[in-house]
């Protein structure tokens, strides 16, 4: 053991730090691994913890009244588990945002949306023109405002709205389907 002005160095096969009252190993290091045995590991750096390789833990939690942020600033973030990944917001909203495409994919099952209300915002409105279905009024101010729409799907899966009529107003040749 060498204790100098700038550092304390130890050369040994195994180094341990134990709690004075219980004798529990708080820190141990050998050639193969480093073990931190405290009940709680607290990293106080402003940049958080940086791991060069994988992280394996049964639980990650933020301090009370603090947000937890898992971030990969330049690459992707992957969470994998052989028995499923669960994301739960018990008392608040769950938001998923991205710059490009959001993919929900189930290779062997279904995607189940279960809510009192499911809204699809900013869907394009297609046009439906059929002389037998809609009669055009000479004065647009006296025509009733369209408030009921039909949800339509293009052959490629893109969704759009079409003014509801007595029968289906969805058309695979809709301008929405042709330009998507």
UniProtKB/TrEMBL annotation:
Alphabetically ordered keywords of this record: Cell membrane, Cytoplasm, Cytoskeleton, Disulfide bond, Glycoprotein, Membrane, Signal-anchor, Transmembrane, Transmembrane helix
Locations listed in the record: Cell membrane, Sarcolemma; Cytoplasm, Cytoskeleton
Primary location: membrane
Membrane-topology annotation of the record: Single-pass type II membrane protein
Pfam families noted in UniProt: Sarcoglycan_1
GO CC aspect terms: cytoskeleton; sarcoglycan complex; sarcolemma
GO terms (BP aspect): cardiac muscle tissue development; heart contraction
InterPro entries in UniProt: Sarcoglycan, Sarcoglycan_gamma/delta/zeta
Protein family (similarity comment): Belongs to the sarcoglycan beta/delta/gamma/zeta family.
PANTHER family associated with the record: SARCOGLYCAN (PTHR12939), ZETA-SARCOGLYCAN (PTHR12939:SF5)
Protein name: SGCZ protein
Organism, scientific name: Ploceus nigricollis
